[in-house]
Design brief:
Structural class of chain B: alpha+beta
Helix content of chain B: 25-40%
Oligomer: heterodimer
Strand content of chain B: 25-35%
Radius of gyration of chain B: 26 Å
Distance between the termini of chain B: 41 Å
Strand order of the largest sheet of chain B: 2-1-4-5-8-9-3-10
Strand order of the largest sheet of chain A: 1-2-5-4-3
Distance between the termini of chain A: 89 Å
Largest sheet of chain A: 5 strands, mixed
């Protein structure tokens, strides 16, 4: 049995470093794919391999019998989310995704002493199928999942505060640790606010607006005005064209059944088209243009009649005329 | 014509047609310009979009009428064969309009433009009438008060009212057979006094006579409604509306507006598609029921058991003596109210 001295560990790791570097990139890519497909909005995902000297020093400290399996963070990843609700959702996604094999969940919040102020991390230890070392042993990856507030605290403390015990550092520790109460309260209130708004119509409209923006990227990539999209969606709902679910179903069906027609329209009027005229074509840079096209496809006459005296009419008229749908505008 | 959404305007000449004073032997005079209009990108975009909106779906197909003596077809051919002559020919066009316009016609702007839709080159000839509007400007008066100064502007051009535009679009691609072909947008066409624009001015005629278009509307829309998935009641309403529309006092018929106003919600696109497959045209046209007057007196309802119900259209409409509702097992229940049988006689063949 090999005795892994720090020097031997360093030499072996240096020799096999590229494997771990590639594993870090692979882990990061897989995590991004998993969370994007699961519909997570902006989250920060990063992964890094331990540097050879870092492993040398850790091995000096820990004396792992087998550093290749015992060291939990030869490859480490970090996922930073906006709130504690997302923390749980990310964890649930990783657990259920076949591309991630969860070995251990280390939730310090579950086991922490409630009377003590201390950072309570959430670490998930995983393997990724196909990410193996030179001995064909799966490489263990430690994933930290943090909220933005937790990350700000942790990074600041890590940057400024040394953990070694002393009378001076005890006071500093207390100062930093008191902040953890605020971090916890911040995250709790944030989650509470999110829970209050989720399920409301306004949130559904906002989510649908973002969805339309994402769908537009398939045809004419570029930023959109989400607030304007939301306002137009609300206008359609007020005019009796159904709820968000109905409008989304109509949009999805249109994209599925008329993708080539939509591609043609945006190739003429999208912002990257050579013939793009901002005064005439600006509505085609908005996500709701796909929704309008879907409703025009269903029944442009009913749409025209229903919206004739509304502010939506001229917006949809621009889409209709640009698409060659002459039945929409009353003549 | 392909969709005007891709209209590109390349060069525009504008000349004014002004009313002459009462003592002049001529009714109108022209104020000619010598160079194409220079427009900023914004203004060109505005103007192009104006024309796109007015032209889209509203053009009636027109062809050159060689029995007429208008110089316009020759001017258009000259413009295409000799690009240098565009400015001079546009002046000819303006002079010709001023010379033949009836005294009741409005003043306005005569626009001659070189344009394109995709690979097809177009000559666009348009008379645009003026619109009136008011402009307000905040000022401080002598008393030091904030007030509005009001200015009435009588000669605004390129407003958004479609009625003020008469536009002839002549397509080089469609004229390749030697006969100039294009489209006309003119809300007043069909009234004798306004026919001057198509015939005497442009030297063209409608490709199809109003009576033909009207008959085609009746034929294609009747079949489209029957073939649609509307309920029996909805179909009856639609048929009544077709007859009512044809018998109305309006001298124009707009198929698109008809669909919007009279076809049951959710079936507009379906009826449009069915009618289009049957050869319907959807641009507005002058109505002429000469060929179909006899068809408009009664509606004939054929039932699956061989029974015929023949009724004046108004009796099949809402509130009429004939009621048709959907019954069980896909059957229709037909009830005739407020009347009695006055005679029965044997008959055979089609009624």
């Amino acid at each position: 049995m090999t005795s892994w001295t720090p020097e031997k560990t360093f030499a072996e790791y240096t020799d096999k470093y590229e494997i771990y570097k590639a594993a870090a990139a692979g882990a990061e890519g897989t995590l991004i794919t998993c969370l994007t497909e699961a519909g997570f909005g902006p989250v920060t995902i990063s992964a890094r391999e331990k540097q050879p000297l870092e492993l040398f020093k850790k091995q000096r400290l820990k004396g792992y019998a087998n550093p290749w399996t015992d060291c939990p963070d030869l490859v480490g990843a970090r996922i930073i989310v906006s709130d504690t609700i997302q923390k749980s959702e990310v964890l649930a996604t990783l657990v259920s995704d076949a591309r991630v094999s969860v070995l251990e969940i280390e939730d310090q919040a579950a086991t922490a002493d409630p009377s003590r102020l201390e950072y309570r991390g959430l670490h998930v230890h995983v393997n990724f199928p196909g990410l193996v070392n030179s001995g064909e042993v799966a490489i263990r990856v430690e994933i930290q999942i943090r909220t933005t507030a937790e990350h700000a605290w942790a990074e600041t403390v890590h940057k400024y505060h040394y953990k070694a015990k002393s009378a001076a550092t005890a006071e500093i520790s207390r100062t930093f640790n008191r902040l953890l109460v605020l971090v916890e309260l911040f995250d709790q209130e944030l989650s509470k606010g999110i829970e209050m708004v989720t399920g409301t119509e306004s949130f559904e409209v906002l989510e649908f607006s973002r969805y339309l923006e994402r769908q537009l990227q398939l045809f004419a990539p570029g930023p959109t005005d989400i607030e304007m999209t939301a306002e137009h969606i609300r206008g359609l709902m007020r005019s009796g064209f159904g709820d968000v679910k109905t409008l989304r179903t109509a949009t999805d069906r249109y994209i599925q059944d008329h993708k080539s027609a939509a591609t043609r329209v945006f190739s003429m009027h999208g912002q990257h088209s050579p013939s793009f005229d901002v005064a005439r074509d600006w509505m085609f840079t908005q996500g709701e243009s796909l929704l309008f096209l879907a409703l025009l496809d269903i029944d442009l006459y009913a749409l025209s009649s229903a919206l004739e005296s509304t502010d939506l009419y001229p917006r949809i008229e621009e889409i209709a005329l640009g698409s060659g749908l002459t039945g929409f505008n009353r003549q | 014509m392909a969709s005007y959404a891709a209209l590109v305007i390349k060069s525009i000449m504008m000349h004014q047609i002004r009313r002459e004073d009462q003592n002049s032997p001529d009714r109108f005079r022209v104020h000619l310009t010598d160079e194409p209009i220079e427009l900023s990108l914004d203004d060109l975009s505005f103007l192009t979009w104006r024309f796109v909106k007015v032209l889209s779906g509203r053009g009636m197909s027109v062809v050159e009428d060689r029995t007429l003596t208008s110089p316009i077809p020759g001017d258009v051919r000259a413009i295409w064969s000799d690009g240098e002559s565009f400015i001079e020919k546009s002046k000819n066009v303006a002079r010709h309009l001023a010379s033949i316009q009836p005294g009741s016609a409005a003043e306005g702007l005569l626009v001659v433009a070189l344009a394109s839709v995709g690979p097809d080159e177009l000559v666009l000839i348009s008379k645009v009438e003026h619109q009136e509007a008011m402009r307000l400007e905040p000022v401080t008066n002598q008393a030091g008060h904030q007030v509005f100064e009001v200015e009435r502007i009588r000669d605004l051009v390129f407003g958004d009212t479609a009625r003020i535009y008469k536009i002839g679009v002549i397509s080089k691609g469609q004229s390749s057979t030697g006969v100039l072909t294009g489209e006309l947008v003119d809300d007043q066409n069909g009234n004798q006094f306004a026919d001057y624009f198509l015939a005497r001015f442009l030297g063209m005629k409608l490709r199809e006579a109003p009576a033909v278009l009207t008959e085609r509307f009746l034929d294609t829309f009747t079949k489209a409604v029957n073939a649609s998935t509307m309920t029996t009641e909805e179909k009856l309403d639609a048929h009544s509306s077709i007859v009512t529309e044809l018998k109305s006092n309006s001298n124009r018929l707009n198929p698109e507006n008809f669909i919007r106003d009279h076809i049951a919600h959710g079936h507009g696109s379906e009826v449009h598609s069915l009618a289009q497959d049957l050869g319907a045209t959807f641009a507005p046209f002058a109505k002429d029921t000469a060929r179909i007057d006899s068809h408009l007196r009664r509606l004939r309802m054929e039932l699956s058991n061989g029974i015929l119900v023949i009724s004046p259209p108004e009796e099949l409409a809402d509130g009429g003596a004939v009621s048709v509702v959907s019954g069980p097992e896909g059957q229709d229940l037909i009830t005739i109210f407020g009347t009695k049988v006055v005679s029965v006689r044997p008959t055979g063949g089609r009624l």
